[in-house]
Design a protein that fits this description.
alpha+beta, four-stranded antiparallel β-sheet, two-stranded parallel sheet, 11 helices, elongated
Length: 499
């Protein structure tokens, strides 16, 4: 047995020096563009003297913290994100997919080594009495046969077919690792966006309730004036219609708020009946003013979706090598060693042992051009993955550019909304005094009230837009996942690539 294993050990250099056919993968170079937009962004956005109205500054080359949501300075938000990361089922699912991919890599590496199996056969036999000679060592027609043996088989990876298979599976494992990071980023971003939406809905509800209160008070005043003969019944009916319209806006907002609470509760990994304790309003969220903007050359290493596309390209490259290797000769080596005896007591005595060494070489000659077309299909899949990678990179840059443009427009929009509220408030006050003095018609007051209500709602939405698009910028830049300690742990757990 030692002699056989030594013979197999002599084949190790063949495996080590064997070539890997097919293309050797090289990560695509990052884009050479210098910025995300055609024109450099301004040093600071516009500002307004309202909540979430501070000027924001883009910091080129800045780095993003892993816990970027803490820049909103909201303890309820921090607590909710922590709950979601601990209990949301999407993360354990992604972690399990990563473990599965890692085990597949380890399983494929097993083909680098010989396959060894042991077995034993035992039989009880009867020799025909009329036979010239008995099959056993005695004249007894009944005899036993016991045969233990060891089987060894080995397929040297001469042309690197297995190395390319391991390479492809390793790329798939890395793909799952970045899928996990994408899941983490999506989850945290959804929690932040959901909290901002809840705050926006609460602001809209508050503005609508204030409008209802104003319309109700005005209706009381008009009814008092009607009793004094100062206004007509038509004015009362018109005011009742305005109040009804304001009240009509409230139930849809309340429904959206209730459903948003359910969505946040689900993100936290809870059932709707286990509603989260945290509540959010615009006053509890501070607008981050310093916005780190990664260099374009760094974005492709920071975006999990781009890294996934790169690993898909890597796997497709390795699959081309496998398809090429399938068209080349395959060497198979086998060995058997064992003993055979009619009794267990004589099983390992001299003369009962046997062994066999065999080698084979198989070269595909003609298979209906199947292997050729499979190689071409693998190359086409590689070309597809390359195009998809480029498309993913373009989308990533577009996301950042869109977020930066949105933040600039949001700042201008908030300034205009704040000015609109201020003007509408002054106009409403003047109109009320003029109506009391009998200087204007009641229709002018209705118009002023409607303009003020619309301005209040627009201001709330503009404030929420700035917060939402700020979170979108952090997400578009990758969310700082590379600073998480769990990333290093997961990276070290992935089976290292074969050399």
């Amino acid at each position: 047995m030692r002699s056989i294993m030594r013979k197999f050990a002599l084949l190790a250099p063949v495996v080590l020096v064997g070539c890997s056919v097919g293309p050797d993968f090289t990560a695509p170079a990052p884009p050479t563009v210098k910025g995300y937009t055609a024109q450099p962004p301004p040093s600071a956005t516009a500002s307004a003297r309202v909540e979430a109205g501070a000027a924001q500054h883009f910091v080129p080359g800045g780095d993003i913290a892993a816990d970027w949501w803490r820049l909103f300075r909201s303890e309820p938000l921090n607590a909710l994100v922590t709950q979601a990361l601990a209990a949301n089922p999407t993360l354990p699912a992604a972690q399990a997919a990563l473990r599965q991919a890692m085990e597949n890599v380890a399983a494929q590496r097993g083909f680098y080594y010989p396959s060894v199996s042991a077995g034993i056969e035992a039989s009880r036999n009867l020799t025909p009495i009329e036979a010239l000679s008995p099959a056993g060592p005695t004249s007894n027609p009944y005899y036993s046969l016991i045969t233990p043996q060891l089987n060894v088989s080995f397929v040297p990876d001469v042309f690197g077919a297995n190395r390319r298979a391991v390479e492809a599976l390793q790329a798939q494992a890395d793909n799952q690792k970045f899928m996990l990071e994408a899941t983490w980023l999506t989850l945290t971003s959804n929690v932040v966006a959901g909290a901002i939406l809840e705050a926006s809905l609460r602001g809209q509800i508050k503005a609508t309730e204030d409008a209802i209160s104003i319309e109700s008070n005005l209706l009381k005043i008009l009814r008092t004036q009607q009793n004094l003969g100062q206004v007509a019944g038509a004015d009362i009916a018109a005011q009742e219609a305005v109040l009804a319209q304001a009240q009509l806006l409230l139930p849809p907002l309340q429904k959206q708020l209730a459903q948003q609470r359910d969505a946040l509760t689900a993100l936290a990994g809870r059932f709707p009946s286990e509603e989260i304790a945290q509540t959010f309003d615009l006053a509890s969220l501070q607008l981050p003013v310093d916005l780190p903007v990664s260099l374009p050359s760094d974005l492709v290493r920071q975006r999990p979706d781009v890294r996934q596309a790169e690993e898909n390209l890597h796997a497709a490259s390795a699959n081309v090598g496998q398809a090429v290797a399938a068209r080349l000769p395959q060497i198979t080596l086998t060995a058997q060693i064992g003993n055979s005896s009619s009794s267990a007591s004589n099983l390992f005595t001299p003369g009962t042992n046997f062994w066999t060494l065999a080698g084979g070489l198989t070269q595909p000659v003609f298979e209906g051009f199947t292997l050729l077309h499979k190689q071409r299909a693998a190359q086409a899949a590689f070309d597809q993955a390359a195009a998809q990678y480029r498309g993913t990179v373009l989308t990533a840059f577009q996301n950042v550019a869109d977020a930066m443009r949105a933040l600039q427009a949001d700042a201008d929009g908030l300034r205009a909304a704040a000015a609109s509220v201020s003007a509408a408030s002054r106009s409403l006050d003047i109109t009320r005094r003029q109506l009391q003095l009998g200087q204007i018609a009641y229709l002018s007051l209705l118009n002023a009230e409607n303009a003020y209500a619309q301005a209040r709602l627009a201001l709330v939405q503009a404030q929420a837009n700035r917060l939402t698009d700020t979170a979108a910028l952090f997400q578009a830049l990758g969310g700082g996942w590379w600073h998480r300690t769990e990333v290093q742990t997961a990276s070290n757990s992935v089976v290292p690539e074969s050399k």
